[in-house]
Amino acid sequence: MSITKLPDGRWFVDVEPIKGKRFRKRFKTKAEAQHFEATARQKCAENPGWSIKPKDRRQLSELVELWYELHGQTLANGHRCVAILRLVAQDLGNPVAANLDPAKVARLRTKQISQGMSGKSANNRLGYLKSIFNELRQLGVIDYENPIGRMRPLKLQEKPLTYLTKHQVSELLAALDARETSPHPKMVARLCLATGSRWGEAQALTPERLKGNTVVFANTKSKRVRSVPISEQLAKDIRQHWKTHGPFTNCLGVFRLVLLSTSIKLPRGQASHVLRHTFASHFIMNGGHIVTLQHILGHASLSMTMRYAHLSKDHLSEAVRLNPLSGETSPASSATYRL
Predict the structure, then answer these.
(1) Helix (H) or strand (E) holding 18
(2) What is the pTM of this model?
(3) In the structure, what pLDDT confidence band is assigned to residue 338 with cuts at 50, 70 and 90?
(4) How far is CA 272 from the centre of its chain?
């Protein structure tokens, strides 16, 4: 008989579908053993050269390097992602990738959050880890399902976006203007406030991408080119700045130091990005259209831009007019008091 039960309770298959072609394998259940025997006989009948594909024993770190070689290098933040993934593989004990246990990943996530990691960072790491299996399967490097494909990211409490008031903008620009040793931050900051660009996008601007009074951003996060008009005076100031000081250099560190010297207090991680939030917030508060803002900011979907919608004067204003208490006289106004 080709299927026998072993002393340890497992089932052993020893099948020879065709002369000289023999397969041996152990299974936990008899049903699995029977399925394997039937598959082996069928496959060999269809193709005498068929053979069992060995189980993928590659470790997670090996897949990380393959992912970076085949795909990660094409990403703008690929070097950062692969550095994080190498740490994740190490923290997980570098298991066989095909056997990656979702519960073990969840335990590591819980441990890291208890040690101070933010929920957003934990979700990013899970996303990076999932992308390894998804991309390598798409490329045919692996032939099994994503072992953590059903893991869900943490549901995080949405935080209100911080933006600067006009008074704070004036204070910040005055502090930047006073920093004579580094002339670039004050002009990059003004460009961010005028266009809603990310700091890196503004900092990378070159003279050939300032066309008339329009700035063309090409090194964007979404990989899309977008154009944003600016005032004639700002365009003139930027050209004069380049003529005097040369192209913008990496000056984010100086900007952060100047920001710390002001009275402005921001949530963690919102230093340079607060300029983008400030542009978007004032744009909406001054009556700008949400779809126009989406195009200016370069958001791929409107859902990202909708974070600013609540700042509109008309946003959800019908809640006042259509609620069940509308038109009702308040008790205080209708009461008659006697002294």
Answers:
(1) strand 11-18
(2) 0.67
(3) very low
(4) 18
* Amino acid occupying residue 243: K
* Active-site entry in 43, 58, 221, 315: 221
> 47, 83 in Cβ contact below 8 A?
no
The yes-or-no answer on residue 308 being catalytic is yes
pLDDT of 262 > 80? The answer is yes
Which position among 71, 241, 276, 277 bears the catalytic label? 276
The catalytic residue among 21, 25, 58, 299 is 299
The DSSP line for 104-145 is: HHHHHHHHHHHTT--HHHHHHHHHHHHHHHHHHHHTTS--S-
Clarify whether 299 is annotated catalytic. Answer: yes
Contacts for 203 with CB less than 8 Å, ≥ 6 apart: 184, 188, 248, 249, 250, 251, 252
pLDDT tens track for 293-308: 999 999 888 888 888 8
Which contiguous run of DSSP H or E holds residue 288?
Answer: none
How many residues can be counted in the chain? Answer: 339
Q: Is 273 an active-site residue?
A: yes
